[in-house]
Amino acid sequence: MSKETMIYWTRFTWNDWRLYTAATSKGLCFIGSNHGNFEELAQWAGKAMPEYQLVRDDEKLAPYTAELSEYIKNDRSVFSVPLDLYGTEFQLAVWKALMDIPYGEIYSYSDIAEMIRKPSAVRAVGAAIGKNPVLITVPCHRVIGKNGKLTGFRGGLEMKKQLLALEGRHNKTWK
């Protein structure tokens, strides 16, 4: 019989940012979309960890929300909190590659495919990026189309634009 996993969560709020954030005892495991609902977290938890219990614990999440707050205030460009990521081996490789994208830089999906040594897996890379459970900290917002256009983002394109602008990547032509 497997042991139930405790997932601690809080609702991070700062200015216009409202994000459900969750961690296990091992590290940050989920950051939801801006103004997302609790159901987004619950659905992810049900898929990632079939035996889980969601417990609100603002104090346990304080180190994670402190770093999020610093990032949004432009006082942090690199996160130091531990992560507890749940995905396939391929997804984990893609997410690790995302964490290697420097603050303020943008890469294409094909750049990420090259980084993980799977240059023909661009679509699979896109699918893995779309499953990234930890928005912002695993910076999938730094990936755009090869043609320079903004592409899908689990948190919505408006959130992606906000994050890129925060990192100094302004482009009025992004649609």
Automatic annotation (TrEMBL):
It is an enzyme of class 2 (transferase). It catalyses: a 4-O-methyl-thymidine in DNA + L-cysteinyl-[protein] = a thymidine in DNA + S-methyl-L-cysteinyl-[protein]; a 6-O-methyl-2'-deoxyguanosine in DNA + L-cysteinyl-[protein] = S-methyl-L-cysteinyl-[protein] + a 2'-deoxyguanosine in DNA. Keywords: DNA damage, DNA repair, Methyltransferase, Transferase. Residues 89-168 form the Methylated-DNA-[protein]-cysteine S-methyltransferase DNA binding domain. Residues 7-85 form the Methylguanine DNA methyltransferase ribonuclease-like domain. Belongs to the MGMT family. NCBIfam families: ogt. This is methylated-DNA--[protein]-cysteine S-methyltransferase. It comes from Bacillus siamensis.
